[in-house]
Specification:
Number of helices: 8
Order of helices and strands: EHEEEEHEEHEEHEEEHEEHEHH
Number of strands: 15
CATH superfamily: NAD(P)-binding Rossmann-like Domain
CATH topology: Rossmann fold
CATH architecture: 3-Layer(aba) Sandwich
Largest sheet: 7 strands, parallel
Radius of gyration: 19 Å
Shape: globular
Helix content: 25-40%
Strand order of the largest sheet: 3-2-1-5-7-8-13
Strand content: 15-25%
Length: 285
C-alpha cells in the first residue's frame, strides 16, 4: 500500500511508521520537520504546514491523519488529498460528558468541559468525517502512555515521587480513569489502515484505576511513598493539567470492537513496569 501519514514524527507516530515499514508498505510523511526530517529507506519526507496547504501529489491507498485538531483541518485534508481510505487519530475526549460508563462507540460526541478546546476541536473533526461520505475509521484512545511521551505525564509523577515533591491530585482523586500504551495504539491504527476497516473504535486497555491508585502504583515502581495533597478547588472541569497530568473525571471506555479484531492491549501495571524500567527510571535519575 501507498500510505500518507500527516504528522507521525513523535510518540505514537514512530511506532506506526515502523509497523507499516515491516509490512512492506510505501510511506510518505508530511509534517513541519521540527522533530525529524530524515527517515529510513522506504519513507519519503515532505516538509510542510497543513494550515498552509498540502504540497503532496499523487494517489494514496490510505491517509493516516495524526494531527487534526479542528474540523477545518480535517476538511482541508479530505478536500485536498487523493486517497482511498482515511484514518483519523481521534480521542475518547471527543465524547459528550456523561454519567453512563463505560463509554461505547455509540455514545454521543459533544461538549465535555474538562477537556476544553481539545474536546471541541476533535468533536468537530468527527462531524466533518461523518458528513464527508469518504471511507474512514476514527480511533478514540483514552490517556496514552509510553516512552518519549511529549505530554508530561509519567515523568511528571515519577520525578516528583523520586524528589519527595508533593503531588497535588485534583478533587478527591477517586475518579476512575483508563489508559492505553502508545505501541498498542499504533498496532490498532496499523490494522485498521491496512485492512481498511471503517468505523469508530475505542482504544483502551482493560480495567480502570483511580488517580490515587495510579500514584500509589507508580510510587511502588520508584520505591518511595508518594507525598500527596488533594486539591478540591481543581475538581472536574476546574482541573489544571500543569498541576497534575490527569483530571479527576471518570473516563473509561468499552474496548470490545478492537479486541474483536484481534488487537491486544497491554495491562496497565505491566506496561507501567516495562516503561519505567526501560525508559523513565533513567530519565528521572
Amino acid at each position: 500500500m501507498k500510505v500518507l501519514i500527516l504528522g507521525g514524527s513523535r510518540f505514537v507516530g514512530p511506532y506506526i511508521v515502523d509497523a507499516l515499514l515491516k509490512g512492506g508498505h510505501e510511506l510518505t510523511l508530511f509534517n513541519r520537520g521540527k522533530v525529524q526530517t530524515k527517515y529510513g529507506e522506504g519513507v519519503k519526507f515532505v516538509k510542510g504546514d497543513r494550515d498552509k496547504g498540502f504540497d503532496v501529489k499523487g494517489h494514496f491507498d490510505a491517509v493516516i491523519d495524526n494531527c487534526a485538531y479542528t474540523g477545518a483541518q480535517t476538511k482541508s485534508a479530505l478536500t485536498d488529498l487523493d486517497f482511498g481510505f482515511f484514518l483519523h487519530f481521534g480521542t475518547a475526549a471527543a465524547y459528550k460528558r456523561s454519567g453512563m460508563f463505560p463509554l461505547t462507540e455509540e455514545s454521543p460526541l459533544g461538549d465535555w468541559p474538562a477537556w476544553g478546546d481539545y474536546n471541541k476541536g476533535k468533536a468537530e473533526c468527527e462531524a466533518v468525517l461523518k458528513e464527508s461520505g469518504v471511507k474512514y475509521a476514527s480511533i478514540r484512545p483514552v490517556y496514552i502512555l509510553g516512552p518519549k511521551n511529549y505530554i508530561d505525564r509519567e515523568n511528571f509523577i515519577y520525578s516528583r515521587i523520586a524528589k519527595g515533591t508533593p503531588l497535588r491530585i485534583p478533587g478527591n482523586g477517586e475518579a476512575v480513569i483508563q489508559f492505553v500504551f502508545a505501541k498498542d495504539v499504533a498496532a490498532a491504527i496499523t490494522l485498521l489502515t491496512t485492512k481498511r476497516i471503517a468505523g469508530a473504535f475505542n482504544c483502551a486497555a482493560d480495567g480502570g484505576i483511580t488517580l490515587n491508585g495510579l500514584v500509589d502504583e507508580m510510587g511502588k515502581l520508584v520505591g518511595k511513598r508518594p507525598v500527596v495533597e488533594h486539591a478540591p478547588d481543581r475538581d472536574g472541569a476546574l482541573w489544571n493539567d500543569e498541576e497534575f497530568p490527569f483530571g479527576n473525571e471518570n473516563f473509561f471506555c468499552k474496548n470490545d470492537k478492537l479486541k474483536g479484531l484481534g488487537v491486544e492491549f497491554t495491562p496497565l501495571l505491566e506496561g507501567l513496569r516495562e516503561d519505567y524500567k526501560g525508559y523513565y527510571k533513567k530519565l528521572i535519575a
